[in-house]
Amino acid sequence: MKIYYLLSLLFFSLYLNNVLVNGLTIEKFILIGPDYVSDTICTTVNYNVMFNHNVSISFYKLQSKPFNISPKSILVNMPYQSVQIQFSSFQPGTFPLYLNVTDDNNAMYTVYLDTYKCSPVTEPPAVDSITPFFWINDFGTKYPGRVFLRITNPQPNAKFIIIRNPNNSIQAYELAKYSKDYYRMELLPRPNYQSTDGIFITIGIMGSTNTTLRKTISIPFPYPDNFVRTTNILNIYPFPKNNTIMETGVFYSQSVNSIVSAIEVNSRLIIYSNSSTVPVSQFIPLLGSYDNGLYNMYFTIEFSTSSTFSLYCNDLNSTHITDFTFGIQQNPTFSIKANSEVDSEVGELISQMNYHLSDVHTVYLRRSIKMDFPLGYITDNTNGGFNYSYSFISTKYTDFYIILISIENLLGSVSVQSPSPVLPTPKQESIISIEYLVFSSYSFVIRTRIQNNGIFNVWNLYNKDMTLVNMVETDNNTSVYECEFSYVLPSSAVTTQPIFFVTNSLGSLSTYFYDTTMINANLEVLPLVPPGFKMNFSAEDITFFKFFPNTVDVSNGPGYTELHFNISNVDVNGLPQIYFPTPITPADTIDETLIFTGQYDPNLKMYKIPITIKSLLFTRRLSYYLFGNKLLESGFISSFVGDNAYLNVTCSYADEFGPIVVDVQPFKKKILMERGMNTTIGWNIVIDDRPSGFRSGVAVITSKYDKSPLNISFSVFDAISGNEFSGTYRIAFPINGQCRSDEYTLDLILYDYNDNKATTFFKEYAPSTSPFIYINGTPKESLLTIDVICQAPEDVINPNLVSLDFTRELDVGSLNRRFQATIVVEDNPYGSGISKYPNNSPVLYLVSGTMYFHQIRSKFVGQVGSNYTFKIDEQLPFGYGIIFGKMVVNIYGITDNFKNVMGYSTVDLKSLGFPYYVNTSFNLVQPYLVSCSNVPPSGGRAIIRGYKMGNITSSVWKVNYGKGYETIIPDFSTNVVVTLKLKAFNSNITVIDYNNGVPSNELTIQPYNPQPYPRPTPPPTQKPIYPCPGTPKCFGNGDCTANGCVCRLPWYGESCNSKSINVPNPLDPNDTPTTNSTINDPSTGIFTSVVSIASLREKTPDQSIFQEYKFSNWTFTNLSDVDNYQYQYSSPIGGNQTTVVRVFVQFFQNMTDFSFAGQNTTMMPGTIKYSISLSPYKFDNILNTLEMVMTATAASSENNSCSMNEYGYSKDNSNTLQWIKLKINDKSLYGRFLSVGIVDGRISQVSNVILDGSSLEIPRENQTVNTYVGMGIPFYSQSVVIDPDFSVLLENDAENAKSACKSSPGGLSKSAKIGIIVASCVVGVAIVGTAAVVIIKKRKFNNENRSLEMKLDNEKSR
Question: How far apart are CA 1331 and CA 1329, in angstroms?
Fold first, then answer.
């Protein structure tokens, strides 16, 4: 596409053809610019000019006003010569422009070019359409706040800037043009800001100091004036631990993952770097909810010996919380001079770097090339450590260049210099034309035609390399290349002009600027934003926009919604797409699995995009990007459609947290190995993951002397005990006595059923969390290593290579790219022998181009005497090795049992007479189909990727649905990407392409119908059948079911023979969560019931009390509304714990349906419900449990009252209490205790028991009916919620009970303690209604003395 179709937003474009001045012709020119205009200056005007001669341009003065003319000559081998001329920094006005030109014959010419006009800026910018300040949480973003503005000015070339006031507590940065007159502005709240400071931003004109040309605006603050902060930070788990000085990662950087536990979060947590007061980290939600959750505060450290980082809580104001100190071990830089020579057989420069390392370290070249062990390593038994060497190939035209290198905590360089460089004839690439072929909302194919001069190598543009592999056709004059590209998300505004570059086989590199630098004689430039997106619309074109629904609950599984929208320029064939990045998706990349595609719906007469939202996401507003003429983010769309732009997810308990290890135990911490002995070593680990459940993982075993990882895969089905939510796994591997004393270390990569990951390799998978987050920094951390002491004789001689043979000629453009090799090695006669472990087999490295390599690990196939044979048989990647037509060979990782490692570089192989290179060719004749996008069984669009697939006229495509091949016409066709519209298919189908009659390979397409990962099947349970009490059954007040009586309202109880009494509000807004119900009945006196929270205990497996916490410092919050009274009480439990217990006490005035832990319950008027939650607790042992103790008390003012205590137990577990009833005469206090709670977001069993009150140190009066209930809580990591409720009942059989009391023998107690078994259907599912009962103890009655005498007397006197 010509550039003059692409510059409609520039100042203007002019063309002047055939201007003849003294014999010199200007064929045409294009004006680009000016870059910006102010009241006093016009700057950076570019003219791309084409002449009919090769000319040079001299400095030129126009009248008395000098112009700074910077000619940028593009030398091309074309009939016409093109040049780029740049003017900068001159005053506004109208000027005729002439060029002084010297032609090929040194003749001087004055050439008229143009009359240029630049009008000054006379008015300040107008600002409107300000969106509210909103927090952003995209991973990789530098600033935490953002707004969108509409800024206009009569002068279209005015460029707007932020006039920053250093005293402002909230600063604005990076004002970037977003769409037409709309701009995106990033905001940086500084530490300790106050809302009273306000958010005031001044916008001015670039190049102007005139204060009258400025506009100051006020940004709405994101919190109301009456905002009350509730955020309470409980624990911080820095990883690595605080005050750690780390070794560097890639180029002096290192990662930190700090896990923050907090409750009642309504603020933003931000970590600032104290050295620059710039945020380095924000919230990444992990687990739970804002009410009680975990968050990751990930950030990187760079170039710092030791720095302080501060955690702040930001909302209406900014408050400092705590500090961290981390550092990077600084070491002097170093340099390596490579030994280089032009190899006579290879024909190119072969270089070798040599260095000595004290230990195994991660090595990076050019930032992106990671060189893992064993590449380069040779054991140095003389000096200790390793000799590090590596050979690579580069062009013979190399004179001198430097390669950056990072070796763990060292930053250095490798210099390459040819001793006798071949100096080529200077040439430059000739890019004849370039086309953009768009096939999706974010992907396109670039087709470029380049003049053949034998020097094209790599063209890097839009963050991707186009190489010789991408050549699709060629002749004697030109070659055509096609390559697929995808649009890259901009993480922030562009502050520097980005570049792309072309390297060639002569070793030269040409740099180009997007939007300005000419790429050919046609005066074309490459646009920074690729043109022609499939759905070419802007936010201003949107006429309707809404999600249905706009709030999605993902608590119990994936959520579903649809986006309906319309635009003014409807394309009914358009395929709209929307992208939802996650908080851990790098901001400058696109994850295709998070893109959803829709179509035009003729019934709705608008576009519809179905969207699936991952389950268990943290409650939040989702950020997204809609693909239009550019990426339209949700905040920007809200500028036009308001709240309809927002999509919210809710989740009662989220899980974006990877699995965690809560316990680790080695089989043996230290093992003594005798020679000839064989044994198995390893660990038992307990993995906890709730509510998603652990799915699978990889244990990575390395040692002090063997850094080749041993990977052991395992899944939930390998658990030796437990289940996916908490299970024990055995990680084991064999060792033999022919070994070296060593220290083995366990690392893990773990996944749960919601695809959350935890890894100890956090430097490489950032941001992430460690599965050892709760073990690091504790004594258990030392258990991650196992010491092996070997008694085999010391072996100080490295093994060596005996013979080497491999494929010497390979066509890397064919379908058969099979590479084979045979490697024979031996150890010294008295050595430890060659290691046969798969992770110790030799690795062959094929090096193509400077530094790039492909590694292949060999397999052991046999031993003859002292010779050990390893073989390789593998297909190479398509096109690999095409550069230079050669690949050189390195071999490393030849290992003996004593962990001596030997290797051979290319130079070493050559000097020893072994083969050392592979000749490659690229004869792409047959089309090659590589892959297909996911296509559901219903059919649809298939995107097929490959090479030399032809075009719409040269290729014939066929598909086989199972009944033979039939022709199918592509919707889009290039050599590298083809789209087909497939019919429905339920089994595998195949496609084939005939390009000019030459058939491709068959590509198999499977119907994409993802199924959930299988889970372990819990043991089946029988549904019991129990009789219903009463005559008639359930006393006629309920229905008898297989699970007992289901009562009809208002009847209650196990036999449906009690009625709920609507008592007055028992809640007392004081400082303790105690409820007190009082009923004054003229016939039976005053009935009083009291319920309270007593204490929290940690108990050992034998049920002894390890620690007990009494509550004394409650904080009260009134959460009542019109319909119900609700109070919240919170208290830290004290001791060395940061745990907070929160008690929500709710009194129901009206009949209300309520759901908890899978049970639906109707709360009758007068019911009191307790909801007790705990934040994270540090258990002394994972086998310990907690016990929440509650007290219930009932009393009557009647002197001769009759009372009974009844307890209902679970049929499945007679020790699990399900209800209590404290009955006095015809009234009772009834309490229900569910056998399930919410443990780490999952419905889990809890145990409830009747306790001996004497151990609780709670006073008991003789005239009261007391019961103490212990609610058992299993080990958990994040949160627990238990939910008992209480109500006062009127008993229908009170007279019978009273008669029994009167008829009892004198002197015997008339209080009855009755144990009742309650039938439960399935573990984890509570019973709806009332359960069946069986009386299992004989009733005993006793007279009850008057209780709470003073209290009742007081009640009477009122």
Answer: 7
Strand locations in 247-399 (E): 253-263, 268-273, 278-282, 284-289, 292-302, 307-314, 318-328, 334-337, 339-342, 349-357, 363-365, 369-371, 377-379, 386-394
User: Which parts of 1152-1307 are beta strand (E)?
Assistant: 1152-1156, 1159-1163, 1168-1174, 1185-1196, 1203-1210, 1217-1224, 1227-1232, 1236-1239, 1242-1245, 1247-1251, 1265-1273, 1280-1282, 1285-1291
C-alpha to C-alpha distance for 131 and 125, rounded to whole angstroms? 17
- How far apart CA 1175 and CA 1172 sit, in angstroms, is 10
Report how far residue 716's alpha carbon sits from residue 348's, in angstroms, rounded to the nearest whole number: 53
Q: How many helices (H) and strands (E) does the chain have?
A: 4, 112
Give dist(CA 1265, CA 1261) in Å, integer. Answer: 9
Dist. CA 1315–CA 313, nearest whole Å: 52
Give the C-alpha separation, 1211 to 1194, whole Å. 27
CA angle (1287 as vertex; 1285, 1288 as ends), nearest 5: 160
C-beta of residue 430 within 8 angstroms of C-beta of residue 520: yes
From 1071, 1066, 1072, select the one nearest 1168 (Cα to Cα): 1066
Strands 160-163 and 200-205: antiparallel
> Bridge-partner residues for 894, per DSSP?
902
Rounded CA separation 1257/1268 (Å): 11
Residue 1300 DSSP one-character state:
H
The secondary structure element, H or E, covering residue 639 is helix 634-641
CA angle 557, 559, 560 (to 5 degrees): 145
CA dist., res. 946 & res. 1000, Å (int): 10
- Which residues touch 535 (CB under 8 Å, ≥6 apart)? 441, 571, 574, 575, 576, 577, 627, 628, 629
Q: Which two tokens stand for residue 922?
A: 């690229």
Q: Classify strands 70-74 and 81-87 as parallel, antiparallel or unpaired.
A: antiparallel
Burial class (CB in 10 A: 0-12, 13-18, 19+), 234: middle
> Would the pTM count as exceeding 0.70?
yes
Do 1046 and 1039 form a contact (C-beta atoms < 8 A)? yes
- Residue 728 structure tokens: 């024990």
Amino acid present at 608:
K
Nearest to 291 by CA among 1052, 1113, 1238, 1007: 1238
Residue type, 480: V
Tokens coding 1274:
């299993």
Q: Position 728: which residue type?
A: T
Which tens digit of pLDDT belongs to each residue from 1078-1132?
Answer: 888 887 788 888 999 989 999 988 888 999 999 888 988 888 877 678 888 999 9
Alpha-carbon distance of 279 to 270, in angstroms, equals 6
Residues of the chain with pLDDT under 50: 1-21, 59-66, 74-77, 250-252, 491-497, 764-765, 1213, 1254-1262, 1294-1300, 1302-1358
Residue 1254 burial by Cβ neighbours in a 10 Å radius (0-12, 13-18, 19+)? exposed
Q: What is d(CA 1048, CA 1044) in angstroms, rounded to the nearest whole number?
A: 13
Amino acid occupying residue 846: L
Specify which residues 1346 forms β-bridges with. Answer: none
pLDDT for 1039 equals 87
Cα–chain-centroid distance for residue 844? 34
> How does DSSP classify residue 574?
-
Residues near 844 by beta carbon (within 8 Å), at least 6 away in sequence: 806, 821, 823, 855, 856, 858, 872, 889, 890, 891
Q: Which of 831, 845, 847 is nearest to 874 (CA)?
A: 845
Q: What is the DSSP letter of 1325?
A: B
- Number of neighbours of residue 1182 by Cβ within 10 angstroms: 15
